[in-house]
Task: inverse folding
DNA sequence: GTGATTGTTATATAAACAATATAACAAATA
DNA sequence: TATTTGTTATATTGTTTATATAACAATCAC
């Protein structure tokens, strides 16, 4: 598995797992319909507890990114299934706000933040116009 | 004071204080050289503990946004004093990444995220070209 | 100079959160 | 049928968040 846990990080382990799975999906390493490893298997791979991975999976389900079939497994939803709802857009904006505000206060320009945003895209090897 | 605390929020109180002070600075309601209220006064205003506000002030100092003069007060640093360091730029990018990745996975386009970013700017009544 | 205010430091407590450890259950799968 | 799966439950440990008091020394207003 591509997930690397940093135990010293201020980001909780379950959150690290959630983010790195999202990155894997964004990179195209994991595609809609693909099954995630069982919570026990992934936990064993990462050397963490089963419940920690389970919490991550449920976080992903709440975000609308995967579907957990009880007693079976977790499947990555297709982009159609997870068509961006107004609530999700609002959530993204809510997440974006404090980051942008901090950037502004520190003196970053719109262009600089825009550039960083596109850099995140390109780092994930997703082609973006003008980069 | 313009700060509104939501006790039920999943965002810690000290973090809410930090963010809303940054918003106040971004809006221009508070300018470089201005003094922040004493930790005791602000805590009394908000109905929270002194240490909670103190933690927020130290977070702002660590971010390079204010200067705390021991036994005197906290002052908002000028934009010149806090000229964007490479470390700060890197920090902003680090903060930006998970938000952008989640947006991507949920199916948001670069343009949509860009639009939200500029909306945050305009909501803070900072003039931005092309908005 | 006196007294109030300031950030600092220390200690203590309570609640919530994060993470682990075991264990048992019932549905799904091979 | 036996294994694997997510689910649920209980318990423990450590960290974080938040509050409550208190005392200290530097600063500030009068």
Result:
């Amino acid at each position: 598995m591509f997930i690397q846990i940093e135990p010293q990080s201020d980001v909780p382990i379950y959150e690290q797992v959630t983010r790195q799975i999202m990155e894997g999906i964004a990179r195209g390493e994991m595609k809609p319909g693909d099954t995630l490893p069982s919570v026990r298997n992934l936990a064993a791979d990462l050397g963490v507890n089963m419940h920690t991975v389970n919490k991550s999976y449920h976080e992903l389900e709440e975000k609308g990114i995967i579907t957990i079939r009880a007693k079976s497994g977790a499947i990555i939803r297709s982009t159609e299934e997870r068509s961006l709802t107004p609530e999700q857009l609002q959530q993204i904006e809510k997440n974006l706000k404090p980051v942008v505000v901090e950037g502004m206060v520190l003196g970053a320009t719109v262009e600089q933040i825009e550039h960083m945003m596109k850099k995140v895209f390109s780092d994930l090897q997703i082609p973006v116009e003008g980069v």
